[in-house]
Design goal:
The protein is an alpha+beta fold and 423 residues long. The protein is built from 11 helices and 11 strands. The strands form 3 sheets. It has a 5-stranded antiparallel sheet with strand order 6-5-8-9-7. A hairpin with a 5-residue loop joins strand 5 and strand 6. Bound molecules: 2-acetamido-2-deoxy-beta-D-glucopyranose (NAG) (3 copies). It comes from Panicum miliaceum (Proso millet).
Length: 423
């Protein structure tokens, strides 16, 4: 199975400015005028920066298309109808980042930090996306191995990880069947792995021939899909993985999926030939970290995450997009009774705009709780309070940026919108 492009996420500091957001800046709609004005602004904010033009790329410049394309992994967001940023900024030092952000603020431009491979909704380089909905049906298959795996995989010893990856497999006569592949990483040698697997997952019948000894870095190459002895340096090359059109949704499980649910899930998988569903155990260090220690809140009690993935290749096939999107949303809908609830948890690194979004000009903490608490549970409020302190004007804004929450001191009640009293 092909590994997802995003599993090594490398951030780099390409800042993007979306369309001008304040009406008084309309004169900058002329791209050239904006570019000129922006360069003058950087020079006045930070006179020490030599040649600001190397940091600012406007759509009329030859550097712009390839820079914009460089980290777009999802071809859904590389089409001519995708809105483009007004400017691409490539600051390399802290001083250059400061000058760029200050200049965006003065021009009424919002800033998007460029993401690596995990920007599933393209929010770091565009600002709207096409939508659709739909649903599919299912039949029945044998799910015994998956059920046994589900019972133990979240509580295996810390040196053993076993995930389940399912995909449609084409058999003769054009028929598709669900294929389940168990993938495992053990921190030890082959005999140790066989011994642990026979203790915990005897029914998988793992033999020494199923295991391969390799260094940890080689295992990262393996999971990334480089299985032909490539050197570790290929991981630095961000252009080798093929690009696709795709959509991903994600659930967390706080209970194993019952047999009927697993059967239904496996039968959904054959409905779209570009579909795949991965179930990854949490547990281990994930569950041992307190929920409030980091923004990531899905800790103890969250046994698995389930990733519903669909991709479709070839520009000729963009017209099939609605069908594929309908499939992945249908699977997510089917899983509602089995997934975590209150909130139905989601993962910020697998961003999903179906969950909700900020409306430009009206970012509201109360409204954003609907999707923010799915990502961060109780940590969302703390994140919103940090945003209220460090970026109350929302220079950094996107459809799912954290909204600012300013909590007024008791006795200092304010009536301005956006302020709430904590008392
Ligand atoms: C950018 O990507 C699109 C979609 O793959 C492609 O059509 C276009 O030629 C690319 N442009 C550059 C400059 O790489
Ligand atoms: C495998 O690892 C175990 C534990 O580290 C060690 O005792 C054993 O000798 C190793 N076996 C082989 C074949 O290297
Ligand atoms: C496009 O999708 C259709 C239906 O899924 C499929 O039959 C066809 O082979 C695909 N074409 C390309 C170029 O991927």
């Amino acid at each position: 199975m092909q590994l997802r492009f995003g599993h090594l996420s490398i951030l780099f500091f390409l800042l993007l400015a979306a369309s001008p957001c304040s009406p008084q800046e309309r004169e900058h709609d002329v791209a050239g005028a904006l570019h000129e004005s922006f360069l003058r602004c950087i020079a006045s904010v930070s006179p020490a920066i030599a040649d600001p033009s190397r940091l600012v790329h406007s759509p009329s410049e030859p550097s712009y298309p390839s820079l914009l394309n460089a980290t777009i992994q999802n071809l859904r967001f590389a089409s001519p109808r995708t809105p483009r940023p007004a400017l691409l900024l490539t600051p390399a030092t802290a001083a250059e980042v400061q000058a760029c952000v200050a200049s965006c603020r003065r021009h009424g431009l919002t800033v998007r930090a460029r993401s690596g491979g995990h920007d599933y909704e393209g929010l770091s380089y565009c600002s709207v996306l096409p939508r659709a909905a739909g649903a599919r049906s299912f039949a029945v298959v044998d799910v015994a191995a998956l059920r046994n795996w589900q019972r133990v995989a979240h509580a295996l010893p810390d040196d053993l990880f076993v995930k389940a990856a399912t995909e449609p497999k084409l058999y003769a006569a054009g028929k598709r069947h669900p294929l389940v592949v168990f993938k495992s990483l053990f921190l030890g040698n082959c005999s140790g792995m066989v011994a642990e697997m026979s203790t915990h997952l005897r029914e998988l019948g793992v033999k020494p021939g199923d295991c391969r000894d390799m260094s940890w870095i080689q295992s990262m190459l393996y999971f990334y899909g480089y299985t032909n002895g490539q050197p570790a340096e290929v991981l630095f090359d961000r252009t080798l993985q093929p690009k696709d059109y795709y959509k991903i949704k994600l659930d967390y499980l706080t209970y194993p999926i019952p047999a009927a649910g697993l059967a239904g899930l496996l039968n959904q998988i054959v409905e779209d030939r570009g579909g795949s569903i991965d179930i990854d155990p949490q547990g281990g260090a994930m569950g041992a970290t307190p929920e409030s220690a980091t923004p990531y809140a899905h800790r103890r009690g969250y046994l698995y995450n389930v990733q519903y993935f669909v991709k479709w290749g070839g520009a000729a096939n963009v017209s099939y997009e609605d069908g594929h999107l309908g499939w992945v949303r249908g699977v997510h809908g089917f899983m509602a009774p089995y997934a975590s609830s209150r909130p139905r948890a989601a993962y910020i690194n697998f961003r999903d705009l179906d969950l909700g979004r900020n409306v430009e000009g009206e970012t509201s903490y109360e409204a954003a709780r609907a999707w923010g608490e799915m990502y961060f549970r109780g940590n969302f409020r703390r994140l919103a309070m940090v945003k209220g302190e460090v970026d109350p004007e929302q220079v950094f804004w996107s459809e799912q940026s954290i909204p600012p929450l300013v909590v007024a001191d008791a006795g200092e009640k304010q009536s301005e919108s956006g302020l709430v009293s904590d008392s």
